């Protein structure tokens, strides 16, 4: 079986990221003492015991979880819960509502869906530097959108002064023929 022409092109564009070879051979004191200790992923091992205790004590699957549930955008219960959580922590000017939330199977899928839905091929997304490396593939690979990096040169990436940097990058991108379709804000500590 051969790959489609577009998969062939994308496979050439992405190459082989070292992280996926490393992750298959991780150090474990008894079963894999010669494996790698990876510092290349944003996993917080210090929280595992607390998170597992919380998850085991507080979650219980119902039979509805084994069905198509409330449709493809996430259960009503999860969306209501995310609505409360995000409104509380992001303190938006207007409260977030359940219908604003769509749940996906992971962060990469969410970003790719968004890029596909918001940008026409050839349009770009602004993203502050430094950023998580796979943003580029998630935003561009299957959508033919562009990533337009925004350097801050020491300015707080979430401060007021950053607005001028975003504007500068937007205008420059438009001069280069790439219309900006959206701005992706990511926590600067990731990772
Ligand atoms: C921006 C971003 N995209 C993707 C991922 C990968 O996660 P997932 O397996 O949910 O796609 C992460 C993980 O931390 C992330 O921070």
TrEMBL record:
GO terms for molecular function: pyridoxal phosphate binding; transaminase activity. It comes from the Eukaryota. Coiled coil: none annotated. InterPro entries: Aminotransferase_I/II_large, Ethylene_sulfur-biosynth, PyrdxlP-dep_Trfase, PyrdxlP-dep_Trfase_major. Residues 37-191 form the Aminotransferase class I/classII large domain. Signal peptide: none annotated. Keywords: Pyridoxal phosphate. One of its GO terms (biological process) is amino acid metabolic process. This is Aminotransferase class I/classII large domain-containing protein. It comes from Parascedosporium putredinis.
């Amino acid at each position: 079986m051969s790959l489609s022409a577009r998969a062939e092109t994308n496979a050439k564009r992405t190459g082989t990221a070292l992280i996926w070879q490393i992750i298959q051979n991780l150090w474990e004191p008894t079963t894999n003492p010669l494996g790698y200790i990876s510092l290349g992923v944003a996993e917080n091992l210090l929280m595992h015991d607390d998170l597992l205790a919380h998850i085991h004590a507080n979650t219980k699957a119902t039979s509805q979880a084994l069905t198509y549930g409330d449709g493809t955008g996430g259960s009503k219960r999860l969306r209501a819960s995310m609505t409360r959580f995000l409104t509380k922590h992001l303190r938006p000017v207007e409260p977030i509502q359940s219908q604003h939330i769509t749940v996906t199977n992971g962060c990469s899928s969410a970003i790719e869906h968004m890029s596909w839905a918001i940008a026409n091929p050839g349009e770009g997304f602004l993203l502050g530097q430094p950023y998580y490396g796979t943003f580029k593939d998630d935003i561009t690979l299957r959508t033919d959108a562009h990533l337009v990096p925004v350097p801050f040169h020491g300015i707080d990436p979430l401060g007021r002064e950053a607005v001028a940097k975003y504007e500068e990058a937007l205008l420059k991108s438009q001069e280069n023929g790439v219309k900006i379709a959206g701005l992706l804000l990511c926590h600067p500590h990731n990772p």
